[in-house]
Design a protein that fits this description.
Layout (H helix, E strand, L loop, with lengths): L4 H5 L5 E4 L9 E10 L10 E4 H15 L10 H27 L8 H18 L3 H10 L4 H22 L7 H10 L9 H28 L4 E4 L2
Antiparallel strand pairs: 1-2, 2-3, 2-4
């Protein structure tokens, strides 16, 4: 099952928020498909929600990372499940990052400029991984998302990476020895090119790979203390 049919395959319930004006009463603004909470996100009194459009967009991105052709139109149930886990893990890690920042002495808190640089660096790797920003923008437009929605996802990614790097395992700093080993042994997208030509792009790819691995490990450990509710 592919595309929009994948939602039924994973039994995601839909709730429609109607537009406020009578003229637009039949327009679907968005659909909340999942509510989740955990101690890291404030518990049951502060649930988080995932909407259909954002989750569909992330399922498209997962399919796009696997297949260079198209815009993820044929994403399937597996892509949706991966997108769901990815979105929840990053939301929880971002919440932990915000707590860590607030609880840190002022001298150890990252500045807005540092977080902006991290966001920009990871965004560059994010777009490179998916075939360029134009391709991602086109996929977002298909789900009626815009640049502000992408910016929110990229900011969340940066906070998640910050937390993992500070509190779990270093993932942001690399050196040439590490990168040369990755260049020789990993299944990266830059094979057949000179290391010197792809070093910076390879570094960004490697950081994103380490972040995804850390998110997956975190999600496995967090399931026992997490509640995920399909909205009826």
């Amino acid at each position: 099952m592919t595309g929009s049919g994948a939602w039924r395959g994973v039994a995601l319930g839909l709730v429609v928020w109607a537009a406020p004006s009578s003229a637009a009463a039949d327009v679907l603004v968005d659909r909340a498909v999942v509510r989740f909470f955990a101690p890291e996100t404030g518990g049951g009194e502060q649930p988080r929600f995932l909407t259909e459009r954002v989750l569909a967009f992330q399922a498209r991105l997962d399919a796009m990372a696997e297949r260079p052709e198209g815009l993820g139109e044929n994403y399937d149930e597996r892509n949706v499940r991966i997108a769901l886990d990815h979105a929840i893990a990053e939301e929880m890690l971002a919440a932990l990052a915000q707590k860590l920042i607030r609880g840190s002495p002022l001298s150890r808190r990252p500045s807005d400029a540092e977080l902006a640089r991290l966001t920009d660096d990871l965004a560059a790797g994010f777009y490179e991984r998916l075939g360029g920003r134009e391709r991602v923008d086109r996929a977002a437009a298909l789900e009626q998302l815009d640049a502000s929605d992408e910016s929110e996802l990229l900011a969340r990614q940066a906070l998640a990476a910050f937390y993992v790097d500070r509190a779990v395992t270093p993932i942001l700093d690399t050196n040439d020895d590490q990168l040369r080993e990755v260049f020789r042994t990993a299944a990266h997208p830059y094979r057949g090119r000179a290391f010197s030509d792809v070093r910076d792009a390879l570094r960004r790819w490697f950081v994103i790979e380490r972040l995804r691995s850390a998110e997956s490990t975190f999600m496995q450990g967090a399931r026992a203390r997490m509640t995920i509710v399909v909205i009826p």
